[in-house]
Amino acid sequence: MTAPRLRVPTLAWVLLAFILVLVFLVGYLLGQRSVVTTAAPEVAAAATELAEVTPGTRTEGPVPGPDGRFDATISGPGSEITSAGDILKVHRRDPADPFAVGALDAPVVISEFSDFECPFCARFANTTGKLLLSDYVDRGLVRLEWNDLPVNGPAAEDAARAGRAAAAQGKFREYKTALYTATRGIQGHPGHDTDDFVRFAEQAGVPDLERFRADATDGTFDEAVAAAKDYGAGIGVNGTPSFFIGEQFISGAQPTEVFEELITEELAKVARGDVEVPELR
Known about the structure:
CATH superfamily of the domain at 10-150 and 221-272: Glutaredoxin
Pfam family, one: Thioredoxin_4
Strand order of the largest sheet: 2-1-3-4
Organism: Corynebacterium lemuris
CATH architecture of the domain at 10-150 and 221-272: 3-Layer(aba) Sandwich
Low-confidence stretches: 1-11, 21-39
Distance between the termini: 21 Å
CATH class of the domain at 10-150 and 221-272: Alpha Beta
Family: Belongs to the thioredoxin family. DsbA subfamily.
Transmembrane segments: 12-31
Domain Thioredoxin: 34-268
């Protein structure tokens, strides 16, 4: 069953897109970086507040349906976006989300918009992404959520369908790791085909490879991939990888230190009570 798509007012998209344009512009003026970083003393002050942050403890993951499959059609925001002030609603915090990793009630959520054909996405996954998992996700401080944004042509859309086919069998994280590990040394777009996807699925431990191949190629996830792509474009994300870190936006595979600064700032907001972790259903 395809999950219903959340309706987001056009005005809200326009407002969010306007905010992102401003972020890009400021980043360019500060040396063509798409993030405004905090001065070192302010970062240090923020770090001292982190002792007040309570790590997330709700680690329950998605539950398969009666057919043993997970809902791999999920896309879009956590709830209806009605204004630019709803930026935190970009994060789903959905217990049924088979693409996410980390505590549901983690103080900070990072929503990633990526493309399996993107070499910069592979660079992030093989460097900073691994550090975020060990230093923040495993400690209950950050939840990582994935959003398909296949902007690199038909091969990227094929890869997104295959990722969802793996997610339907509860193996998205392992599949993503296998794919990005295989593309670590490739310059440019890898141009994977169905046989490659099946090979990555086998490495990931996807139990039913025949069903995986069918799901990846028979149109099962066409609508879901299109919806995810429309969602990213609708909020002004037009390049990969891109990230919403709490309330802040960053574009590109920036140095690890940039991610650490922004995560520290967002955790400090929670520690001060400036941002509240939403109550979960």
